[in-house]
Design brief:
With about 130 residues, the chain is of the alpha+beta class. Helices cover about 35% and strands about 25% of the residues.
Amino acid sequence: MIAERITESLISQFNGNMRLVEKRPGVLQIDVPIYHEDGDMLDIFVTEKDGETRLTDFGLTVMRLSYTFELDTDNKLRIFHELLKQDQVEFDDRNGEIYLTVTPDNLCVSLLHLAQVIAKVSRLDVLKREVVSG
């Protein structure tokens, strides 16, 4: 089962500084001390889909970004997709999910990589133009 295999691998790779919480059957949330700038913990999950193990944000990064910034122009979307392409992560346009397909051997490195991508996407709001009144 995914929970046992993934739990053992991640806990050993993180020297015991993390835990997995089963959110629903087949979906584990990774509870690791990696935070957004505002202090909220990153939401990263582990699932199996079509026999592959995935690290995913289930679309929560784009949703969180939408609170302060919209990907509503071609230029913003181009920058967003280019960032994801450069960092070699996958994106599902249907649900806004950013994810990586991983193996048990590279879970720790992949988790840190996805956390870094989530941080970059979360900071895309620097592209917003403020209206200066004067």
